[in-house]
Amino acid sequence: MEPQPDTWLDKRIGGAMLRTWLREKTVPVHRHTVWYYFGGMTLFLFAVQVVTGILLLLYYRPTAESAFESVQFIMAEVQFGWLIRSLHSWAANLMILALFIHMTSVYLTRAYRKPREITWISGVALLVLALGFGFSGYLLPWNKLAFFATQVGTQIVANVPVIGSFMLRFLRGGENVTGATLTRFYGFHVAVLPALTTAVLGIHLLLVQLHGMSKPSDDESNRSMPFFPNFLLRDVVGWLVALGVLAALAAIFPWELGEKADPFAPAPKGIRPEWFFMWMFQTLKIVPAHVGVFEGERVAILGFGFLLVLIAAVPLLDTNGNRQPLSRVFTTLGWVLLFYILFMTISGYLETPVFAAGPPQAKSPADLFINDIHRQRGLTCVDCHENDVRITAPKRTQIAALCARCHSDLNYMRRFNPQMRVDQFAEYQTSIHGMRGARGDENVATCTSCHSVHDIRAVRDPKSPVYPTQVASTCAACHADSKRMAPYKIPTDQYKNYRGSVHAAALIDRNDLGAPSCNDCHGNHGARPPGVDSVPAVCGQCHRQEKDLFGGSPHAKPFQDLGLAGCVVCHDNHEIKKTDDRMLSAQGEGVCATCHSDDGATPKIRTMQSSILGLRLQIDTASEILGRAERAGMEVSKPKFDLEQARAELVKARVSVHGFNPNKVMEFTRPAIDITIAAHKAADAALEEVGYRRRGLGYALIGIAIMIFALVMKIREIEGKKS
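RESULT FIELD:
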């Protein structure tokens, strides 16, 4: 066949030279050839990142005030916006996975050997840049999980010796993670990192073309295939497979948005980095606090840096033949590192502790005193024990007065805190504990019973025995001791009952410091049981609306006349259970059945119950359908927000029950039912959209499968002709 004459475009871009290069370029064929395709797959996924990222830029706003809302708008309002964002997020993860596989295969097959040293180093640089993309892009949606994960991640950087504090401020744009951090990460993600990646990627591809693809040193077959079209068509098949997997993930598991970041909210439980940083996160967990004279975390950070440099320098160190001992050492170390990364990553997701802590060791008074608040304020043993020759413990009945020498002296306490209370001892003397102690009872609680002895901590210290979450167990140390309580004929099941209450679930299990403990109802230093008449007032400290409604209800005066302790009659004492709508019933286990079985109040009870149960059923139904739509990846934050308004009205309706007026209850339930109906319709529409997406995915996968089949047949045809 005669060569075709150069066209106008060929003469200007060197078309003839390009065609010659494509005809002459070959790719080695051996048992490891399959790993070559992951390089091209990584490049393809990077291209997907570029295209989808540009489309997202059209709507994204990089400010703390509007970033979350702009992503929400992309997912809910922009045509196919949900798909573009999901493709972008999933492609990022798949690209890093493909890059890990590509780098691992190059390392274990020793394809970094001469003359490909710089090719390997540029590949390591691309891996670092890819991880930088993942870290900077994670914050851009400005959701809660990303905010706190970024806070933790950037704080780790602060442990880098010498330059750590500078790097922290450089990354955050200040001391804390704020809107400035978001803007800075946005600049890194869309400008700095793409520019660096483009330059390094260009160098990497140029070096690959100059030196070709490496083959194992023990392969002597010299078999090869033409790069064009044989290898390129196989590469395209791999790209189509990656595209099919990417489309399936994006359609079936759309990337979640989560909740908007709130810098003032407590950090959620179980904060974890993205999977590609998990092994480092788990490593930091198991490093001891100190390694010799150095901080353990700093040693670990330096270790990660040294490991990166070592990996990049492997081609310069491993210059011997395949059978040399040093080469086998590097290969073995590579396998060890690979298994370590896999093990630590899996353990992070399984929440498996790698090393268990030993049993706590008993501490001497001197060791305990190190953390004591008095020591931190400059006091010593002599300030309490008065004798530096032979220190003796004060009598139990004298401890309160001993503490009062300082804590009741206003002028003395002002040296430490101008707003410090000085009436604790006066209150204690009016308490049951104080009055019994004044009569010589050495068995009652005193200051050290609650605040500890030598390791007294500030009340706001979570390790303090009087920190809100610890108060109940501190009281239980005495009040759950049947032998100690026997002389007073006091029950010892208060803590057990409290632990099963709704209050303990909120305070201890969920760390809600607004929930009550023993001292909120019985008092602190002046602790005593509340009287029958004072129970509604005690409960009313938190439940004010219920108290006011009950005070104006038909129940208030009869309860008072009969000597019944208000709230306790329906809600119990220490074991206060979570309220249930079934309580509002004159039948079965309903609390109303205790007094009302079939009297004139029964119709009112039924009216209130049916109104509340009807609304709850509507809310539960709409919530279940919205949950299905959300699990399918639909953006349903607007109807979910509306449904929260309906739930708020349901709470108001439940509260209004204390006034025993059915009309007041229905003032809240009727408008809430209208809200739930609208939410139900939105949920149905979302489920219809899910079906549309799934059908679209099916058609797309069929199209991709047809293209793969056609390419495979074309490859066979080409290779059949040559053979």
